[in-house]
Design a protein that fits this description.
The complex is a heterodimer of chains A (765) and B (162). Chain A is an alpha+beta fold. Chain A contains 21 helices and 29 strands. Chain A folds into four domains: 213 residues, Aldehyde oxidase/xanthine dehydrogenase, molybdopterin binding domain (Aldehyde Oxidoreductase, domain 4, 2-Layer Sandwich), CATH 3.30.365.10; 156 residues, Aldehyde Oxidoreductase, domain 4, CATH 3.30.365; 125 residues, Aldehyde Oxidoreductase, domain 4 (2-Layer Sandwich); 191 residues, Aldehyde oxidase/xanthine dehydrogenase, molybdopterin binding domain (Aldehyde Oxidoreductase, domain 4, 2-Layer Sandwich), CATH 3.30.365. Helix content of chain A is 28%, strand content 22%. In chain A, α4 packs parallel to α5, α11 runs parallel beside α12 and α15 runs parallel beside α20. With 162 residues, chain B is an alpha+beta fold. Chain B folds into two domains: 75 residues, Beta-grasp domain (Ubiquitin-like (UB roll)), CATH 3.10.20; 73 residues, DNA polymerase, domain 1 (Orthogonal Bundle). Helix content of chain B is 36%, strand content 14%. A five-stranded mixed β-sheet of chain B has the order 2-1-5-3-4, with helices on both faces. The longest helix of chain B is centred in the last third of the chain and has 20 residues. The radius of gyration of chain B is 16 Å and the shape is globular. Classes of the chains: A alpha+beta (765), B alpha+beta (162).
Chain lengths: 765, 162
Amino acid sequence: MDSTPTMNRREFLHSQTALVVGASGAFTLVSPEAAAQGAAPALVGPAPTALDTWIRIGADGRVVANFGKMDCGQGLDLAIAQIVAEELDVAVEQVQVTMGNTRLSPNQGGGSGSTGIRLGAVPLRNAAAEARRLLLEAAATRLGSDVATLAVEQGRVFIKAEPARGLSYAELIGGQGFGTSVEWNRQVGNAMAVKGRAQPKPVSAYKIVGRDHKRQDIALKVSGRETHYTAHVRPSGLLHGRSVRPPVAGAQPLAVDDASIAHIAGARSFVRGGWVAVVAETEWDAVRAARDLKVRWSEAAAPFAGGHEGVFERIRQATPTAANAIAMFGGRKAWDEKPTLAALAASARVVQAEYECAFQSHARIAPSCGVADVRGDRAEIWSDTQKPHFLRDGIAKFLGLPAQNVQVTWMHGAGSYGRSDADEAPYEAALLSRHFGRPVRVQWSREEGTAWDPKAPAAVISLKAGLDAANQVTGWHFKAKGFNGWDVRFTGESPEHVLVGMLTGHKKWNAYNFNVPDESYQFPQHVHWWETVPPYLQEASPMRTAHLRAPQEMQTRFGQECFIDEVAHAAGEHPVDFRLRHLRNAREVEVVRTVAQRMGWPGRKTVRSGGKVATGWGLALHSGYGSHAAVACEVEVHRDSGRIWVRKVSIAHDCGLMVNPLGVRAALEGQIMQGISRALHEEVQFDEQRVTSVDWNSYRIASLDDVPGEVDLVLINRPDQPIGGAGEPAIVCFPAAMANAVFDATGVRIRRYPFVASRVKQALG
Amino acid sequence: MPRYTLEIDGAPRAVDAQPDEPLLYVLTDKLGLKGPRFGCGVAQCGTCTVLVDGQPVRSCVVPASGLEGRRIRTLDGLERDGRLHPVQQAFVDEQAAQCGYCANGWVMHTVALLERKPQASEAEIREGLAGVQCRCGTQIAILRAARRARDQMAAQAAAPKA
């Protein structure tokens, strides 16, 4: 039975585009001048210096924009389409954005650090402006008129004084390509930018950017219309692969008993180094074979001494592997705690507290899925990785192929929020495909996707503050100590960053990273730094860490924003007033003031009734990614069960110039639920041998019961400011805002997230 | 491998399947359907939901072999003449998806609920959709979509036939 999906409309468009681009050299390398200077990194794929790489006008006038990032589920392609449509003066619906296809787009860094619009749109905006300039020039020649006499509407250039005389983009260039160059800044990744001679439009002229637009891809997600997700990709001749994980993390396979799967026709085992897998002709047979295969494993020392309940003591006791005061992304920053300690020693009072943050799992709604077709020295990969170009490079290294022989077609996938398990299955599929000589699809199980995916690191955040006799802050001492945030890198650019790579002999890299909060608040003698502690298991650990949405910011902000509340109360000041007194940035002041007012500040009084349900409110602030967010939560605390419910949430959000307010609202609503989820429920559990949170019962996430009673979003648009990211700052605030609200309601401080009901009940006494 | 005849979206389909093979693998791996999707394989997320005789069923754990003679409906079969079902349309109108991978579960549960209870109350909507998981946190928009679907289907039912 042939289950190969037939080529549909969208795929057909893509393939047409590929042909067109192929004609101008899909595998060209760096621009010659850059290569000569040795200034640019080796670049595989379409040249960023060609305008045609970025923008094409089809024979039907449709604009194709090739985007070197992808969409994690927030409709980023729509924002890019708006920006391109704005520059070209066409309808948004006329723009088709291809994403993350290594054949079509240069490496713009993939989904990364809320850079999708603020950095990712830059080359496309400039390329679209340049395309418009060239189209106007061509029209001026053909119409025998000057460019200054021309105008464009809906992709048609016409003479302003004689609107009947004009030419459509399709008539001017449809299907042909511009054949011209743009200037490339020689950066690869997020910072990649190009520009032509044209200046993009001023913000004041925007008609499409800044307006609500609806995503066109929702219809594809709520139907079975198209091959949309990686999971849908099933080329003919497909084999299905599954991994077999050890019962104790770190155990090595000693022997595999093929007789144990002999009852499954066509099922075969595969062992390479420490990795065991099976393949079969049907998906269900692969599931059965993975279940039935008997493997003798080595005796492994239990790697996770103390289990998850012992994690914070382990952090406190551990000798640091690294310490630094820089927020993130390498480099060194010095710090000196002595002046702060001296200031604290001289203070009338010292307030101190420690905050604990559990390991959390990426736990995508569907675990990793990848399809690979390796033939000879070429490999085709289908994946929903956030970084398709880096995955291409990594799989090329893994298979020992030149990077230009590996192509990754990015597909939509289960939502991802950083370096998830998405990069894992494609590597495994590639290895199996090369070995068995057929296309292979690997679908991870739920248990793999929850127990074996990269984690957000657990941490203990320690804070001390001094107050003088007049209750003024004399010093602020912040230390984040936690598991390294970088056991594996935020891309799959090399095999040591995925499980199967480590299991087949690629040694884990050694890079250390945590975070400290940005200096939103101005305190005297303010010192902060981070320390990382050794991993439980060095290689191929199910507890290996990687970026999870706003990496390590939720942990550090939980400490910082809860402690600010504690110090404010110790100083006898309202936490809002205390914050406002120590903020300097007017945009931060505005978001804090706004959400506080939505909660009734300054008039609202704290009422602690002692009844079964206590009510209070709290807030938190986070700035990052060029944006500012304040979140205020009004919570109900149910004393008999320990349940916390957000009755009302207000967010004031300032991401500079807003491209699509509807999209920002959707992003914030998502962050509300995922923020509540991480604050209340999400905790990786493990015993000494293995991760024991393996599914949605043991790794709980937010449900309909957690939906707030009232959602109040205040979007602050600042057309005079650069575009900021809207996918991360708000979510960071939730654990702190909710814990502060619990204190307001009950007078009890919750200093460990998630606020699991049983622990809250115990804390309430 | 035994052969079974299943009624899927109104048409009989002959499929070869292992006796214990869950319906999901038959639908996706063997018939190429794109609506039901693998999410957990242990009946905890709803992403694989289909309707069997009008009831939402987790196809990742129910063997296809036991479903002969039952009426199986999937997301793939909801559209009529290229037009989305009112529930699907309500999800589009409310933009009630982020990654949308789980949307199948929410849509199929909403369809089942509104066929059973066209006037479903807020509490009945929440009860009817309980147990479906969304990792992106789209629940706020999903509830709006379910209410919109209810209201629009009621309005259509009340409208005089053309």
